[in-house]
Structure formats: structure tokens, C-alpha cells
Prior knowledge:
The protein has helices at residues 20-40, 46-57, 63-69, 74-86, 108-130, 137-151, and strands spanning 90-91, 105-106. It is built from six helices and two strands; from the N terminus they run H-H-H-H-E-E-H-H. It comes from Streptomyces aurantiacus.
Amino acid sequence: MNKSVPTDPSRPADDVTRHVGYQLKRAQAALRGAMDKALREHGLTVPQYSTLELLALRPGMSNADLARATFVTRQSGNVVLRGLQEAGLITRPATADHGRSRPAHLTAEGHTRLAAVQAAVYAVEQRMVEAIPPQRVEALLIDLDRIAAALED
């Protein structure tokens, strides 16, 4: 299985599917597909779910902060927030107190919907984590954090 994994980054593997970047993207695509399937049954998208999770953790986040944290553009983040607001899952003031920021908060219905969908999403993560020996999970998290930090501007 590891026969063509490059040990020297300047020398690529003979098989592109053995590159770290390729395997990372493959894992991300599989995760996204599994989450899409689980969330579809609850009438949510991955960005909508991520927004609800973040607002439960940090009420009052702005559109810009939520967009960054959910890996979408500010414009897409605004569409997500509008959809969640129209569905009665979040509230935002009609106007900004200062600047352009309109902090978002979960409604009671937003908390209820989030609680209903969390089990499905956590089951996806559990399937993913069970594929890794338990003693390697923490090291994987550290490695993924290092990868992200090395590539961030």
C-alpha cells in the first residue's frame, strides 16, 4: 500500500493517488458526501449545519466570521444566514448597531433542529474515527492542524 508514497516532497510519487494532498482531498470528499446524505434527511446543508453548530458555541458571530469558519465566501455565508433566518432557526437584527455587522443567534427552533441533527452528523464522524486505531487519533488531529498551519497565509 505504501509502495509509491514519496518520502522526498520534491520527488512526487509515481501514482498521483498516493500523494498526501490527493488522499486528504479524497477523505474530505467522502466526509462531505456522508454529511450531505445525513443532513438531507433533516432539510439542511453542510454550511447551514456548520453555522448552527458555531452559533450554538459562539452566539453573536458576524456573517464574516461565520463565513470564514464554515469555509464559504461572505456572499454565500449571507445566503446561508438568510435561509436560516427565513426558516426561523436564527435571528439577526434588521440593522447593524455599528458598522455592518449583524450578530446572529439561534432561536429556540434553531436549538431544537440542531439537537435533532447532531446525532446523525456525529454518527458520520464516529464512522470516520473508527477507521483509525484509537491511539492514533490525537496524532492525526495534531498532524492535520500542522498541515493547515503550514499552508495558511
